[in-house]
């Protein structure tokens, strides 16, 4: 059985100009690494718990495996985007293994 790997990000924009540049750069790198955006900052509704602060967005990116997601994050290609993200956002970035699927 194989399982997909997911990047889950909760982010709040700190610098809008840097965030815009990050989004442009990161989209190219994600696609080149075989990732696919499932969620990228769309409308969210809190059903339980405290509401998110204004400007908070969610991102979910799917990769073929957890290892592929990890490789993307640590890649030389993503490094410039990662540097931008550190000034553009206050964020929490997780790698999560999906549910194993039959091949």
UniProtKB/TrEMBL annotation:
Pfam family membership, one: DUF1330
Domain DUF1330: 4-99
SUPFAM superfamilies: Dimeric alpha+beta barrel (SSF54909)
UniProt-recorded name of the protein: DUF1330 domain-containing protein
Organism: Desertihabitans brevis
Lineage of the species this protein comes from: Bacteria, Bacillati, Actinomycetota, Actinomycetes, Propionibacteriales
């Amino acid at each position: 059985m194989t399982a997909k790997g997911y990047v889950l990000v909760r982010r709040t924009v700190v610098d809008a100009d840097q965030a815009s540049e990050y989004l442009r750069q990161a989209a190219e790198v994600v696609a080149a690494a075989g990732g696919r955006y499932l969620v990228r900052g769309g409308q969210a509704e809190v059903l339980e718990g405290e509401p998110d602060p204004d400007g908070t967005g969610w991102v979910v990116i799917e990769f073929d495996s957890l290892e592929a997601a990890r490789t993307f994050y640590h890649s030389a290609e993503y490094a410039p985007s990662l540097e931008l993200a550190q000034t553009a956002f206050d964020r929490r970035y997780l790698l999560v293994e999906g549910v194993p699927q039959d091949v």
